[in-house]
Amino acid sequence: MDDAFTVPVTVAAVVFSSLSNWMALTGAVFYATAKANHRSADSGDAVDAIRSYAGLALRLYCLDMLIFVVLLGDTYFFVRTALEHNSLLYAAVGIVFGYLALMWSMMMMYHLPLMAAYQRPASEIRVLAVWRDSFVLLGGSPRFTVGLFLVIIALACLCAVPMLVGTALIFPGTAAFLAVFGLRELFIRFGIVQDDAQEVEDKPWKLPDKR
Q: Is the model's pTM score more than 0.70?
């Protein structure tokens, strides 16, 4: 097959696959958030979440991927130039862009869980607010972020094994529950969500008045 045809088709397939997974993750994250908050939820609620937040999720996906691709492209350009010209300066700049690309990919792990944790209509959530809070979470808990990121990457690699047919279908749900329940205590510590633990009033129990 001609490369002029193969490359666009491959790129389109990758974009379609990643976007499909992103939208599936959106519904799964809202479903997992409801379960984490001890609210009843079913598959219909996940579908409703995708419908209600589709515009915001799509905008977040496009901006996230644009920044990530630009950072990866800069990394490739400077590293390749460094190898061709044996330049330490270009190598250093390439390492910096590679580090930024890695940090951004870890920040992206927070974006959908944050969107669900706000528990506000899509029209009231700003992309800049999601980015700001994800940056604060990454800076405040780098070791936890790296650990959770590696677990999700390992899960993605397992689901991508060709011999395990059908495992890719469980990735959005499993990753959503890992992220939401793994990040819940972190969100509470940073004041993003409130702890819903109810305080029990300390008073003697008695039978209700039948009158």
A: yes
